[in-house]
Design goal:
about 450 residues; 7-stranded antiparallel β-sheet; mainly beta; elongated; disordered N terminus; about 10% helix
């Protein structure tokens, strides 16, 4: 606790004014307090995936390209408990066939534990339904032999489906590729897709053979189903056709990236209207033990609100914990908002804090001194989001946002992470966080 905060918690003895007379009309009158309403809205986009990306450079190669027998692709990614992996890579000796799990994807945790396993038996060969099939390894409109991309005729059966071996020369998936997932700890995984073909994998009707080749692909991690396609439905037009016909991934990767990010609730928070003698926290100093830790780690503002209520230089304080229209207290999900009201007079400052829930101990708040509620005698009004920062309470070691097992949505109980013994500061831990304005918007409105 800073010296300033300690002083603020000591009752202040007011000095009486000699010859005071409340009824003396010559004495200046106290200004009428202004009532303010503050709205804390969750503006976070709702994302389908916590992660997505491409694999396009064979292991040991210097540049993107296909993988021939003996080669492999690798990708590393993060996934929270409950995370599901989907991916797709082209079976190159075809018109529009590709390897992928089914719509349920590959579960990356079993009984809460991350997997390390050969998952080849969960991978199937699919037909994108975008180009009519020709004999694998021989068709003139297949990538190794076509004059240019997208040259084949349209498939009359316009839907994604399991590939049929209509020409009788496609080996089993396990004879073509081997897929493994390895846990690297702390929610990190490695995906390896190895081409296990021999070089003479696909016998053709002209008496020859063609090697198995796989092309660059994409991966996603989410918790839903049908990430890349839906069996029995048409291609979505997001880029799967380019991947399945020509091994091009840029369009599909861009479409997935637009749907990838951290969707975060906001947690109940605390506020205080105070003089300059009080701060809710001090930048660069350890948490003062007034309740900020519980707010920042577990979304519990009650302790901080109680501490602030007992400070003489705090004229109003409380919690905001029930989203507008909700039946009771709870988190504010995207599209929800908290509101709270208070009275203040010129010279008063406002401090408030709400947890960034997909974290260990991060919270949104103005600077430690608080926000001035008046400019001269004029009450402030409008959007004040630009004055917020994402702060690190310094009380728990940070994990990757949206992934960490000790973060509120995934932890076994409150206060379960490793102690950091740090200081309160604007977050700067090497992880990537969404910009403040994309998660929270705060507006303040004088009433009347």
């Amino acid at each position: 606790m800073s010296t300033l905060q300690r002083a603020a918690l000591v009752p202040i003895v007011a000095l009486g004014l000699a010859c005071s007379d409340d009824d003396d009309p010559t004495q200046p009158t106290e200004p009428t307090p202004t009532t303010f309403e503050v709205r804390v809205a969750n503006t976070s986009p709702v994302y389908d995936f916590i992660g997505s990306g491409v694999f396009n450079t064979p292991v040991g190669a210097d540049a993107p390209g296909p993988v021939t027998p003996g080669g492999s692709y690798e990708a590393t990614f993060s996934a929270p408990p409950g995370g599901v992996l989907s991916f797709a890579t082209m079976f190159v000796q075809s018109n529009d066939l590709f390897f992928a799990p089914d719509g349920d994807g590959i579960a990356l945790y079993e009984n809460g534990a991350p997997i390390t396993a050969d998952v080849t038996d969960q991978v199937l060969l699919w037909d994108a339904g975008t180009e009519i099939d020709q004999e694998p390894g021989l068709g003139p409109d297949q990538a190794p032999r076509q004059a240019g991309p997208n040259t084949g005729e349209a498939d009359p059966t316009d839907m994604v489906r399991r590939a049929e071996d209509g020409f009788g020369n496609i080996p089993a998936v396990a004879d073509l590729i081997e897929v493994s997932v390895t846990s690297l700890g702390d929610g990190r995984f490695r995906l390896v897709i190895e081409n296990v073909g021999s070089g003479m994998d696909i016998a053709t009707s002209d008496g020859g053979s063609a090697p198995n080749v796989i092309a660059p692909g994409v991966w996603t991690v989410g918790s839903g189903s049908d990430a890349l396609f839906a069996e029995g439905s048409s291609d979505r037009g997001e880029g799967l056709e380019g991947l399945a016909e020509d091994g091009t991934v840029s369009d599909l990767a861009a479409a997935l990236a637009a749907r990838t990010g951290v969707t975060s609730p906001l947690a109940p928070g605390a506020y205080a209207v105070h003089s300059a003698a009080v701060q809710m926290f001090t930048d660069g100093a350890p948490d003062a033990g007034l309740g900020l830790e519980a707010l920042a780690e577990d979304g519990d503002p009650s302790g901080l609100a109680s501490s602030l209520a007992g400070v003489s230089e705090v004229s109003a304080s409380g919690v905001f914990n029930t989203p507008t229209g909700a039946a009771g207290p709870g988190p504010a999900f995207p599209g929800d908002a908290y509101t709270f009201t208070f009275e203040a007079s010129p010279g008063d400052l406002l401090s408030f804090a709400t947890m960034f829930v997909q974290s260990n101990d991060l919270f949104y708040a103005p600077d430690d001194a608080g926000l001035a509620l008046f400019q001269g005698e004029t009450p402030v009004s409008g959007d004040i989001t630009a004055q917020l920062r994402l702060w690190d309470a310094g009380t728990e070691v940070n994990q990757e946002p949206g992934i960490g097992g000790d973060q509120a949505p995934r932890q076994a109980g409150p206060d379960t992470g490793a102690d950091e013994a740090g200081v309160v500061r604007v977050v700067d831990d090497g992880y990537t966080y969404p910009s403040t304005g994309t998660v929270v918007q705060v507006t303040i409105t004088p009433q009347g």
